[in-house]
Design a protein that fits this description.
Blueprint: H1 19-31, E1 40-48, H2 54-64, E2 70-75, H3 80-85, E3 89-94, H4 97-111, H5 124-138, H6 141-166, E4 170-173, H7 177-189, E5 193-197
Parallel strand pairs: 1-2, 1-3, 4-5
Length: 198
Amino acid sequence: RARLVLSQCEGFKTRVWATGFDSAFHGILEYLLEPRNEKDPDLVNVITPLTVGRLDEIELERLLGPLNLQANFIPCYATVEQLRRTVAAAVTTATCLTYGEYFARSLTERYGVPHTRELMPVGLENTDRWLRKIAEITGREKETEALIARERTRVQPQIDELRRVLKGKRVFVSAGQARAMTFSALASELDFELVGTT
């Protein structure tokens, strides 16, 4: 039997484009989710918009794997069961705060699933912060520090080469708030000359 989920958004009438995201998540919260007795200490809800592709998800799985954490990517292309499992997760994180904040906060308030508020895991510093916050909530700090050290060693030669090629090149970042902050930080890490952000 199919279950219909109401998602109401008046489009341009709201004047806030993110209202559509929140409306869709509200429908999931109201019509699909129910409390579960069991909790999964290894499950991480990862809220990803369509602009985060499958290759990005594979990379996030690769980073979470050594920590014995399993990513539950929602809501795009998720099954109903994946959505329902969100209430049993150890933590919820979003790759875009604007997109995922309402749902993550609601899972915390309604079902006690803690959530992170870190920027996107893009670049060295932001990825490290993202991993450390998940580790803090799931009790995997030691394993995470070892993972970060290994990853830094692995990518440092590539970063050094990128910095050599990009040093002094000028860049202007224009994006939504969370992405603008993330990509401005990445530009600085790669030795771009950041001329502006909006």
